[in-house]
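Justification of resources, computational component.

The compute hours requested in this renewal are based largely on the per-chain cost of generating structure records like the one below. Each record pairs the submitted sequence with a full structure-token output. That output is archived, and it is also reused by downstream analysis tasks.
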Amino acid sequence: MSSSPISDSKPYLPTFMAGILAFLLFGVLAMWMLKSGDFETTDQKRAGERRQNLQTLRKAEEEKLTTYGWNDKTKGLAHIPVDRAMELELDALKQKPVQPSSTPVNAPAAPAAAPASASAVAPIPTPAKTSKGN
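The structure output for this chain reads:
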């Protein structure tokens, strides 16, 4: 009827082993879920939306820069391709006569005279050698 201390500690062994097994099972389940699931974070979603918005914006800008169309038809504002606009502007600039500038431009001041020779610059002194006496 007396119980030994060894027999009292045996019921803890199955509990300890069950705890270890549960921990390992949880770890394996967590790893499986992380690898099999396609979890997209909020930052990844926002980045995807920003990329899509940028593509849409660039497509609209490209279309506006390369096609003819109305900006505001009621005001008579239209847009033309950039290449055609540059051609028209070059033709207009070629037809204008060259005129003197209305802004006065002063000649730059003469540069300061350089030293006559390299010997005019003072040499860099060298440190004197010292000897230690014991």
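Residues 33 and 116 are 82 Å apart (CA to CA). The mean pLDDT is 82.
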